[in-house]
Amino acid sequence: MKTLFALMFPLLYVLQPASPAMAQARIKASAPFAYTLDPTEDVYNEQITHKTLALNASEFVVLHRQESDGYRVEKYTANHKKAWSAPVPVAGFETVIAFIKTAEAALVITHRDNGQGSQQLHGHLVNLATGTTEKSLMLLEAPMSFRKANVAASEDGARLLAYHYQTDQNQHITSIKGHLYDNRLTKIKDTSYALGDLTTILSADIQLSSNGDQYVSLISDNMQRLTVRRYTLAGSAPKSLSVLAGGAAGGNKLYILDGKYKLMPDGKLFGTVITADEKTAIYHSLRTIKFDFEAEEMIFAEEFKFTPPYLESVNNMGRAKGVVAKRLEDIYLSELLLTPDNRLIVIAEKKFAAGGENAPYFGLELHLFGYNDVLNLAWNSVVMKQQEAPATQGFSGISYKANLSGNTLQLLTLEQLNGKHDLYLRSINATNGSAKAPVVLGLQIAKGKEIPYIKAFTAWLTEKELAVVARTSKAPGSLQLLRLTLR
Fold first, then answer.
1. Which of 319, 324, 417, 444 could in theory staple to 473 by disulfide, Cβ–Cβ 3.0 to 4.6 A?
2. pLDDT tens digits along 134-178
């Protein structure tokens, strides 16, 4: 007999097929790719997740580090030839934290410890047509603190915000200050967000619109309240929308474990959080909200609760691969996607390091939630995968890359299925959650101690063509920059 949970929220699932379909990709062009893993990169939380940026249907730029001469931005043309290569100056105590595309330039942002008690953000503007570095300047200088200065950019690169946090003795955020720039790195204005009316702010996220509006999402009140404030370029009084996402529920106290936000082109901001029990850390629910500042209202999806039947359903899918959990854990929100007809897809992933020095990293199931245009839950599903990588590589090759093509969600993963170590593509219908079995791309990814695949360099150029950096069995000695055509 079906449980009430199963009747209300049918759980779709994607199991591995007995025999993945025939190879679905053809290597259109390839070129050797020199790459060195930056030792300063956080292999658990990758800050730059897109190191290849598509310019159009055939051209793209990449940002990568070469052991011999540091970071470079390079442009590749339709015939897979390197049009130009521009060096990015990086000092000894400096890390690259952002790679952004504007209408006319590629923008690289670095974070520098000047060794004298302050931190700096520097911007390097590279002309997309010529490869000339048109501007290199310091965008921000602030006292060195527990919280690292950062940047936010609009989707089209028209606006850039360089900002830093001010905190109290307990490292709670009390205010945020920064400088707003245009796409030529010309400063538009100074910004300041006074947050003293909120208590114990531990998390802040900033989204930027192309017209310069700044959306600041804050988790406060001891990880219980989600507040979003919109600051306009004109400097008018900020508008604020707030909801208590944690608090008491059935005698238990809940807190916000994780949050994810996405500003859509129409100016609507979506936020989703996972809540958990304060005493046990057991996952409680997923809450999804749309913030509409023009109407000054919030639209709430029905709370999705992680009940024991949900855990049992997930375990039933994983038993064939020996993946059975006593509780939901290590699951974090990773992506929010909006289809052309305003359907929202939320993706959360189970990912963790096994613990201890040199312990391997794991990327396991994906939890997907599909909402219709009025934010009613239309479907939810779990994609079962089992990925492992050595500590030196972290999540550089495992996890997944998502692409939304109309109402089809594409998920690209590096896995070994039925003895084939390769890239696999899954296609999921965003309307009802139905999924096709994973298909092998047929690249024959090499196995060994060397990095086999770097997912940050994967970029869809068109619906059927993408760029990938991988090490194939036919050329295991070096990474290759591949241009693939999907069949």
1. 444
2. 999 999 999 998 899 999 999 999 999 999 999 999 999 999 999
Cα angle 464-469-472, degrees, rounded to a multiple of 5 = 100
CA–CA dist 253, 127 (Å, integer): 53
| Residue pointed to by tokens 């791309």 | 441
Q: Could you tell me which of 190, 323, 315, 207 has the C-alpha nearest to residue 270?
A: 207
CA atoms within 13 A on the CB side of 63: 24
Residue 214, Cβ neighbours under 10 Å: how many? 25
- Residue 248's contacts (CB-CB under 8 Å, 6 or more residues apart) are 254
Question: Do strands 304-305 and 283-292 pair parallel, antiparallel, or not at all (unpaired)?
Answer: antiparallel
Q: Could you tell me the pTM of the whole model? A: 0.94
Low-confidence ranges of the chain (pLDDT < 50): 1-10, 15-20
Per residue in 388-413, pLDDT tens?
999 989 999 999 999 999 999 999 99
Strand duo 377-383 + 11-14: pairing = parallel
DSSP state of 472: B
- The span from the CA of 415 to the CA of 424, in Å, is 7
Residue 327's identity, in one-letter code, is: R
